[in-house]
Amino acid sequence: MRKALFFGLAALFAAVLCIASAPVIEAKTTFVTIGTGGITGVYYPTGGAIAKIVNKKKKEYGIRCTVESTAGSVFNVNAVMSGDLEFGVVQSDRQYQAINGSKGAEWAGKPQKDLRAVFSIHPESVTLVASVDSGVKTINDLKGKRVNIGNPGSGQRQNSIDALEAAGINYEKDLTAEGIKASEAPGLLQDGRIDAFFYTVGHPSGAFKEATAGKTKVCFVLVVGKGIDQLIEKKPYYAKSFIPVKANYPGAVNDEETVDTFGVKATFVTSAKVPEKVAYAITKEVFDNFDAFKKLHPAYAVLTKENMLEGLSAPFHPGAVKYYKEAGLVDVDKDGNVIRKSDAKKMGTVGK
Ligand code: GLU
Q1: C-alpha of residue 168 to centroid of ligand 1, in Å
Q2: Is the dihedral of CA 76, 77, 78, 83 positive or negative?
Q3: Which of 124, 161, 241, 296 for mutating ligand 1's site (highest number of atoms within 8 Å of CB)?
Q4: CA distance 15 to 339
């Protein structure tokens, strides 16, 4: 009996020692889900890249990241706001419209006050492809054609409408507009069931590899002109952009190396309701492992830690700013302005 008691106590002592010397381990797991886009886009692998890096420290942070394929930016903003998702990849233009409740947007007159910026990611181009048989060479040739402008819930749908309007084309009257998911559009183009489709996405993307690799000859179409120039001028979130066609899509029939268009940025957002330590952990892991992260997709080649703070219009999540301060990337002044250290530029404000 005495002996049994002795061994029992010894085992207990050993167990206590073991716990005391182990690294701090979070007792309960926090599950966070990242909303992305269609599986042939760049958001889906982006969610995967972030989750992969964060999940390596699962024990330390007690955070388990999962990724969900969704309808895209508009869906993601709404799901983050309703609490169905903790994080989402969202176009910079949709972020701007959501936080401002911009006229003509999904959130017109209803600013999404709890939307918080974490960082921005790769550039995205408003990309238009058409079958060679359709004869479409520039956006102006889309009149009378059957065109996929994007599914409801996607970010690209509004870009397509903006681009068409800027080119003087009414999407409801002047063409047959389809609202199909980007993952299905390449198949329909190959089958001759649509003449062209728009997709706002980083490059390379699986969708355009698929669209340009089949029997039907396909070309990337210029999205340029006076109207487009005026659109870029008018909207703070649009900038000129180009698609590196030759380097990424050898199956396309274009002769030129690049095709001009305009674009936005992919950004990573969350809600004010998401705890500071969760936003901090994700930001820290992505930035501390920046080189490894950059290697996870060719669309990240242009990323720098500094430009990942650009293109954001919602207030920064305090957890993200805590990391940026610690890493010496920003200062925060007494009014809550987030100032980038490298060039003293104001990047935004800190949210509550
Ligand atoms: N930009 C698209 C959207 O917001 C998604 C692109 C992607 O999945 O890479 O819906």
Answers
A1: 25
A2: positive
A3: 124
A4: 48
pLDDT, tens digit (0-9, with 9 covering 90-100), for 82-141:
999 999 999 999 999 999 999 989 999 999 999 999 999 999 999 999 999 999 999 999
Token code pair at residue 93: 């233009």
Give the domain-ending residue among 229, 246, 264.
264
Q: Which of 69, 73, 198, 248 to mutate to test the pocket of ligand 1 (most atoms within 8 A of CB)?
A: 73
Domain assignment of residue 331, given as a range = 9-123+265-349
How far is the centre of ligand 1, averaged over its atoms, from the C-alpha of 86 (Å)?
18
Distance between CA atoms of residues 151 and 264, nearest Å: 18
Residue 319, domain CATH: 3.40.190.10
Structure tokens at 250: 């050898």
Residue 299 lies in a domain: yes
DSSP 277-325: HHHHHHHHHHHHTHHHHHTT-GGGTT--TTGGGSS--SPBPHHHHHHHH
Is the Cβ atom of 154 under 6 angstroms away from ligand 1?
A: yes
What does the pLDDT read at residue 18? 46
Its pTM stands at: 0.92
Distance 138 CA to ligand 1 centre (A): 22
47 lines ligand 1 (CB under 6 A): no
